[in-house]
Design brief:
By secondary structure, this protein is of the alpha+beta class. Strands 1-23-22-17-16-11-10 form a seven-stranded antiparallel beta sheet. The chain has 21 helices and 28 strands. Strand 22 and strand 23 (about 565-575) form a beta hairpin. It binds 2-acetamido-2-deoxy-beta-D-glucopyranose (NAG) (4 copies). One 2-acetamido-2-deoxy-beta-D-glucopyranose binds near residues 238 and 262.
């Protein structure tokens, strides 16, 4: 780490020197030269508003909504619907979500739009064939995302509903390019895709999976979105889309009914909150375990003091131990409408409770699961997406959405084009141990009609005093809690900049199995993330059983750099490079204009680069280029210098 900091300091000095040396013909605005976070498109610094999704196309669609005067909630509607089209393995209107909203006025609200068990579901419905719980029509729970988006929009939206649905509809109709990450998800789910008529028709051509960059059109989904744009969510929950969807699910052996859709309810919940590090951390309450678990971990670690207490390998060891405790405690949580969780939640938020747990953490060693009281086994979700949004008034949205596994139930409703969730798999069932471990199932999480299964999703908003400080969250199943907490700690406790906080290699532990997973991942975009060998050795010495993991969480992080003079600071937006996404924002007031999907390729075509010497390249990249002609101000050029493989960017030079 130390070396990295030194070399990046050196490189930035070198880059600035080179910049002035080679570019005396350009006039450079000195105030902006400091914003050279990195040359990478995954981080931007803007003034007005930012959308950090895990797919750049959806960040842009959300950004355009903000630029037209939309509320952060408007952008979340357009962004989430876009993600459901271009990234259907991760989320969509066939799934569910949690949305945390913090208004500039100070109001905070948590929208629970998680899927619920159908009326005909029962505790023993999978007895005899537990595989039906994981995939296929019987694993489908009642979708909630669309109902939740609409409810939030009814409360806070400023742009017409139709305007927010159209970009997704257009992408579905005209086609979208298959991203490298989606392709990876397709490869991992190939068997399921091949054996489902709907998915097969959408994602294969001449009997083989489509390749990255291929154009994929989902005409049925376009039609569905058109219905929804014209008739609102009634079309889905009490209209033609719903009727077709239910017919498809039942035909495939599912138990979903129109009554399930009609009776689906979005729940407005009180967010949980805690004061840590002089900040207020707002999190998602149950049925998510994420918010309470994150706060418990932070409360335990706060006892050691920041930043020293969480630095180096000892700091990581303590973080893992705190994580193991949080996993043991969270197993008693569930849908608060079915199980009393008050006591557990108040324990998890209590610094006193954290102090008791801290006493059982040893700096020299780790322990088996029993030490932490882990008695129940829980199950997990991987097809997930997180979006962080801040608008020009500093309204903020932190939203995590999911279809549970990759492509959910691995079932696409042929008549509506909707990929359906397999959220029933997040319930526990009597007698069956999950493949991940060997503890008995959690009783609190057994199936009941209308019940929502426990989740790990951790949409989070951070305040400093009355001001918005950060928006963060991640995808990646049960690892979400570790991923989100690590990024938070990296920035707020370990003082890393927002981009480095996301880039740092991650550590995961789920208590059961008793394995410390460390990141060792070369992503689809070619980045390599790996925990250093000396760190691994130090952790091994404390008794941790280590295993490399080529996967993990994808984290979108927005930080507002507050200035004393104003409550409107610069916004640094980061989309995790691990999934290939990038954020979008805007710097000044510009004329509104129509949005349109853009392609990476066309951006690349517009890039000018100049090889100055063997190891120095100057590049001009139009960051905000869009395929249609538009006003000049949308062309925000970026100057980038690559030297010895390290690149720095300077945007907004005059
Ligand atoms: C369970 O259901 C799956 C999917 O329908 C089927 O392929 C499998 O044979 C069933 N297994 C048993 C033990 O009935
Ligand atoms: C569903 O639609 C019917 C009319 O088609 C209406 O009478 C009924 O109130 C609606 N139900 C709900 C729950 O919106
Ligand atoms: C760790 O320290 C405790 C006392 O503080 C001691 O009892 C224990 O044996 C030590 N463990 C190892 C693995 O050295
Ligand atoms: C599940 O795990 C528990 C605890 O290890 C064990 O006692 C039980 O036999 C297991 N059940 C099944 C069905 O494998």
């Amino acid at each position: 780490m130390q070396n990295e900091i030194m070399s990046s300091l050196f490189a930035s000095w070198l880059a600035i020197t080179l910049l002035y040396f080679f570019l005396s013909s350009f006039t450079l605005s000195a105030s902006n030269a400091s914003a050279f976070n990195s040359s990478r498109r995954e981080v931007i610094t803007v003034r007005r508003g930012v959308v950090a999704a895990d797919d750049g196309r959806c960040s842009r669609i959300g950004r355009d909504v903000l630029r037209e005067g939309g509320h952060a909630v408007d952008a979340s509607v357009a962004g989430a619907l876009c993600l459901g089209v271009v990234s259907p393995a991760s989320s969509g209107i066939g799934g569910g979500a949690f949305m945390l909203v913090r208004l500039a006025s100070g109001t905070v609200q948590a929208f629970d739009m998680r899927e619920s068990a159908p009326i005909k579901a029962s505790e023993n419905m999978y007895t005899g064939n537990a595989t039906l719980k994981f995939s296929g029509a019987l694993s489908v729970a009642v979708p909630g995302e669309l109902a939740g988006l609409h409810q939030a929009w009814k409360l806070y939206g400023r742009l017409p509903w139709k305007r927010l649905v159209k970009p997704a509809e257009r992408l579905a109709r005209k086609g979208f390019k298959i991203s490298r990450y989606l392709h990876m998800q397709m490869v991992k789910t190939e068997l399921g895709i091949m054996s489902d008529e709907g998915l097969r028709n959408l994602f294969t051509s001449r009997g083989a999976l489509m390749e990255p960059g291929h154009l994929c059109r989902n005409q049925k989904l376009a039609k569905t979105l058109q219905e929804i744009s014209e008739h609102g969510v009634e079309a889905f929950y009490n209209g033609s889309v719903g009727l077709n969807l239910v017919k498809d699910v039942q035909k495939a052996g599912g138990i979903l009914t129109m009554e399930d859709l009609r009776r689906y309810q979005v729940k407005l919940r009180e967010p949980i909150s805690a004061d840590i590090l002089g900040l207020k951390v707002l999190g998602m309450p149950p049925p998510s375990s994420g918010g309470a678990a994150m706060i418990l971990i932070l409360n335990i670690l706060a006892q050691y003091g920041f930043p020293l207490g969480v630095s180096g390998s000892l700091g990581i060891h303590r973080e893992i131990e705190a994580l193991k405790h949080a996993f043991a405690v969270r197993m008693a949580l569930d849908d608060p409408n079915f199980v009393s969780v008050k006591k557990v939640v108040s324990d998890m938020l209590s610094p006193k409770f954290a102090a008791e747990l801290k006493k059982t953490i040893f700096d020299n060693m780790t322990f088996g699961p029993n030490h932490y009281g882990g008695r129940w086994n829980l199950i997990q979700d991987h097809g997930t997406s997180h979006i962080s949004i801040v608008d020009s008034q500093r309204n903020a949205v932190s939203m995590t959405s999911t279809v549970n596994s990759y492509f959910g139930a691995q079932f696409l409703s042929p008549s509506t084009g909707i990929v359906l969730n397999n959220e029933m798999d997040d319930f526990s069932i009597p007698g069956a141990n999950s493949s991940a471990g060997n503890a008995p199932p959690a009783r609190a999480n057994f199936i009941r009609p209308f019940k929502r299964p426990l989740s790990s999703m951790t949409p989070t908003i951070v305040l400093k005093g009355e001001h918005l400080k950060a928006v963060v969250g991640a995808s990646g199943g049960s690892m979400i809690i570790a991923g989100t907490t690590e990024v938070f700690l990296n920035h707020f406790a370990r003082n890393m900049d927002p981009f480095s906080s996301v880039m740092a290699p991650r550590y995961y532990h789920e208590l059961i199995p008793n394995i410390l997973f460390y990141e060792n991942w070369t992503t689809v975009t070619g980045d390599h993330f790996e925990v250093p060998a000396e760190m691994r050795a130090a952790l091994q010495k404390k008794g941790h059983i280590l295993q490399g993991l080529a996967g993990g969480t994808i984290c979108q992080f927005v930080v507002q750099e507050l200035e004393t003079s104003s409550k409107f600071g610069e916004l640094v937006g980061v989309s995790d490079p691990r999934k290939g996404g990038y954020p979008a924002g805007w710097r000044q007031w510009g004329r509104p204009q129509a949005s349109s999907p853009s392609s990476e390729e066309s951006i690349r075509d517009f890039r000018h680069s100049h090889q100055v010497s063997d190891d120095v390249v100057l590049e001009l990249i139009p960051m905000d280029w869009r395929p249609e002609p538009g006003p000049k101000e949308t062309m925000v050029p970026l100057l980038r210098i690559c030297t010895a493989g390290i690149a720095f960017a300077f945007s907004q030079f005059a």
